[in-house]
Amino acid sequence: MPPAGGPSDSIGPLVDGLFRRVAGRLTAQLARRIGTRGLELAEDAVAHAFLQALRNWPTGGVPEQPEAWLTTVAKNAALDRLRQGRHIAALPIDDLLADLPPGEAHFAGEIADDELALLFACCHPALTVEQQVTLTLKLGCGFGVREIARLMLADERAVQQRLVRAKRILAEDDLPVSIPAGAALDARLGAVHQALYLMFTEGHSATDAPSPIRPELVAEAIRLAELLLGHTQTATPEGSALAALFCFHAARLPARHDAPPLMALLEEQDRSRWDTALRDRGVIHLHRSARGDRISPWHVEAEIAACHTLAPSFAGTDWQRLKLLYRHLTDIKPGPMPLLAAAIATGYADGPGAGLAALDRLAAGDVGPMAPYLAARAEFLGRNGDRAGACRALDEALALPLGRADRTLLAAKRRRMADG
Fold it and tell me: Which CB contacts under 8 angstroms, 24+ apart, belong to 277-281?
């Protein structure tokens, strides 16, 4: 049978796509059997498998089952290093001799998932919250240091050092890669939710991918969030709110594409293309999130997403309600982005002059001239009739470091503003 692959110049994008979809799961499968002492070994073995794919597939062809091929190569690489004794002594080689099926059932047989096991292992309380989330994004989600630094608003060198320290702590304690129970699970659940939120964020607005959307990350974040809702101890109101937030945002993704890397803004989207099934799942999760007596940031963000997704049109959006919701979000989740979003909602609720005044108040406080601020200022200046001022604001934004999609979007907006 001829190989499944195409021309050799298509191998790079194919392997890159597989890495984004498979690397986290494969690392989790290996780590589940090796334990936290072997986290680096698992990560190195997976990297070796993808490197071998780049070397072998252009000439030998893509195997019919590329994921199975990668699994075998990674497993053999891990075994070779263990047998040669160049890694960590006394790691369980026998556990790797068998195939790598799905993990054993947890939560009394209700949840069986290697990736969730790795997420909970990475969120061990021996680590700081920053270390937990950073390690989860690296090992559980397959993110690079640059992506993590962007998502966590951190320096790349600081992220790298955080990863080294976190792996060392887990290796020294020789902790199992498993889903804990009882109070230990409760103590880690918040960090797991935060990691899933960042996973979804990267999928929804990719850092430096060919497309500004990474559907595989969006789908995986939703899958894991809903998987957690399948067990009584992890089916919390906060978890339901998080799943609702994901579903509402994901429902709008089919209409966000224009001609990649351009993206259709919310005001310009064809709402008939929105995914009604995902929207309806979001409504169900949102209703279930109301069971508790505590309002988390996920609750408010899910309500905000619902306002946008359930509105009949951009003009028909309840901007007064959104203004109040964003103000509530700034109370429980302080930070520049919620403050900026509240100012933008004020502009749409009360007019561009009110929006500009709100932005001016932010500029006098904690929100500096970052690109989203300048883009919002340009929008309200344009709506207020000051196209020249809007162009100047967009020029300032374009002079800042930007991701590919953001730069393309702002440049297109600058051309439209200049053309009138």
Answer: 278/247, 278/248, 278/250, 278/251, 279/247, 279/248, 279/251, 279/309, 279/310, 281/243, 281/247
Q: Which amino acid is at 91?
A: L
CA distance 370 to 397: 7
The answer to whether the CB of 106 falls within 8 A of the CB of 179 is yes
Q: Which two tokens stand for residue 164?
A: 């080294």
| pLDDT of 111 over the 70 cut | no
User: What SS3 state is found at 115?
Assistant: helix
Cα angle vertex 186, ends 180, 188, to 5°?
A: 70
5-20 confidence digits (pLDDT tens): 444 567 888 888 788 7
Print the SS3 string covering 84-110: CCCCCCCCCHHHHHCCCCCCCCECCCC
Give pLDDT, residue 94.
53
Euclidean distance between CA atoms 229 and 181, whole angstroms: 15
Whether the per-residue pLDDT at 134 is higher than 50: the answer is: yes
Q: What angle do CA 24, 151, 190 make, to 5 degrees?
A: 70
Residue 107, sorted as left (phi over 0), alpha (psi -120 to 50) or beta, turns out to be left
Find the helix or strand (DSSP H, E) in which 214 lies: none
Instruction: Say which residue the tokens 């997420």 belong to.
Output: 119
Type of residue found at 408: T
Q: What sign has the CA pseudo-torsion 170, 174, 176, 180?
A: negative
> Which tokens hold the place of 112?
């069986």
Is 73 exposed, middle or buried (CB count within 10 Å of its CB: 0-12, 13-18, 19+)?
Answer: buried
pLDDT digits (tens, 9 = 90+) for 56-100: 999 889 999 998 899 889 988 988 888 776 554 444 555 544 554
**Residue 59, CA atoms < 13 Å, CB-side half-sphere:** 3
What is the distance between the alpha carbons of residues 11 and 15, in angstroms, rounded to a whole number?
Answer: 6
CA distance 92 to 38: 10
SS3 label, residue 360: helix
Is residue 253's pLDDT more than 70? yes
Q: Which residues of 402-416 are buried (b: 16+ CB within 10 A; e: fewer)?
A: ebebbbbbbeebbee
Residue 55, strand partner residues: none
Beta-ladder partners of 255: none
